[in-house]
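# nightly structure sweep
# worker-07 picked up a monomer target from the shared queue
# config: single-sequence mode, recycle default, output format = structure tokens
# input follows
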Amino acid sequence: MFHRNIKLIIAGLIIATGIWQFTESNIGNGIFLILLSAIPIFLYFKNEFILLAFLKLRKQDFEGAKKWLAYIKNPETALVQKQQGYFNYLHGIMLSQTNINQAEKYFKKAIELGLSMDMDLAVAKLNLAGVAMTRRRKLEATSLLNEAKKLDKQNMLKDQIVMMKEQMKKI
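# output follows
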């Protein structure tokens, strides 16, 4: 919605107003404004459109997620590096259903930019392993599967990893 620097300026103005309220002996207003400033600071690190796209993906609404991501016009300038990674990660997930060539490009870019959660990184590497397997690049697929297995600490992807290893034995 707002550029990331504008969010910081808004947070700074709210904090300055809160401090002014403290000096005017309006302690309640000052506390409220200081707490209110946490919203733009939070949205600086977590883009609101990416959060809404994640919510749509949880409901398997790919078109809705695509709509929310379309609101981000210039991801290189409007987002911090981790947000750019998640922007590419979400595009990769949506395209993995239809166009694996594009999805591979987005997943590689997401891994390059960085993802903050190990589970997201494991899913990206698992999808890249699937793409490598369909292209008969067994060595690359094996290394990506091993990396995904290391990153999957809660064993949520265990079944998919075992299934892909079984399919690789057939190749």
